[in-house]
Design goal:
Layout: H1 3-18, H2 34-51, E1 56-62, H3 66-72, E2 78-83, E3 87-89, E4 92-95, E5 102-112, H4 125-131, E6 132-143, H5 154-159, E7 164-169, E8 183-188, E9 191-197, H6 205-218, E10 228-230, E11 245-249, E12 255-261
Parallel strand pairs: 1-10, 3-7, 4-12
Antiparallel strand pairs: 1-2, 5-6, 5-10, 6-7, 8-9, 8-11, 11-12
Length: 262
């Protein structure tokens, strides 16, 4: 691992332990392109998994919808790694004090039934669908550490494991309709506050799975059977308050619920 990646990873670990506000790493570390940003992410994730005696169980894909790309000022998805010890089952309870600033994203999660390698050509949506065994409604848990979204440094976000801090999963289903046409309804304390459609995720959630398979192939890796992929938020990120309960309902693939505690 290169010196800059190791140094930047230790800096990020220190920031998380201090719950320091998120800021660009650029003034100190030469993260000049996405490849370098993912090098730092690799170093950070390696150390997090070692420190927490856990393993990686899959990947999150972020910034897949026009709403999220507009929010963060970018035009392409990003990826991060999900740790096994940060997976919760619905209904769940999160403690806001455990985060610099807790955020929720509203997603379709898939679980692979078979490996998804890239063999001589890019992985397609059809390839991805053939490899998927089940799907579920899910929240992604993020910690943006009170980032300023004006002029956000996406390379530093990627380096910081694309802000992933886990996931809350609903029940998995082994059959599903065309997920481009499913509606996601979000309720806050039993009152509808937003809704969106599966096609807001790169046109189809399985495009995210193909995207991350190709991204991993570029870095010499493969999506494996049993791994999870969080396909990206249909709705804009929200930053919940203590005492609130959120419920995401995606009709034929179920729902997921979380309550926020101190």
């Amino acid at each position: 691992m290169s010196d800059y990646a190791t140094g930047a990873a230790y800096e990020l670990l220190s920031q998380h332990k201090r719950k320091a506000r998120f800021h660009s790493l650029a003034p100190t570390f030469p993260i000049t392109d996405l490849s370098r940003a993912y090098d730092v992410q690799d170093a950070l994730v390696t150390r997090l998994l070692q420190e927490q005696a856990t393993t990686a169980v899959g990947y999150k894909i972020g910034l897949t919808s026009p709403r999220m790309q507009e929010m963060c000022g970018t035009d392409q998805p990003i990826a991060g790694v999900i740790a096994a010890n940060r997976i919760l089952r619905s209904p769940a309870r999160l403690h806001a004090n455990n985060y610099g600033r807790l955020g929720l994203e509203f997603e379709i999660c898939v679980r692979l039934a078979s490996d998804l390698p890239r063999s001589g050509r890019p992985v397609t949506r059809a390839d991805a669908e053939a490899a998927i065994g089940s799907v579920a409604a899910a929240f992604e848990i993020i910690d943006d550490r009170d980032a300023d979204y004006k002029g956000l440094d996406i390379l530093s976000v990627v380096a910081d494991n694309s802000w992933n801090d886990g996931a809350i999963l609903g029940e998995f289903h082994s059959s599903w309709p065309d997920l481009a046409n499913v509606e996601a309804r979000l309720d806050l304390d039993h009152v509808k506050i937003d809704s969106g459609w599966g096609h807001e995720i790169l046109g189809h959630p399985f495009e995210s799975v193909a995207w991350v398979a190709n991204h991993l192939a570029e870095r010499g890796r493969t999506l494996r059977a049993g791994q999870l992929v969080m396909t990206g938020s249909i709705l804009r990120t929200l930053f919940p308050k203590v005492g609130e309960t959120y419920r995401l309902d995606i009709g034929p693939i179920g729902n997921v619920e979380v309550t926020i505690a101190v």
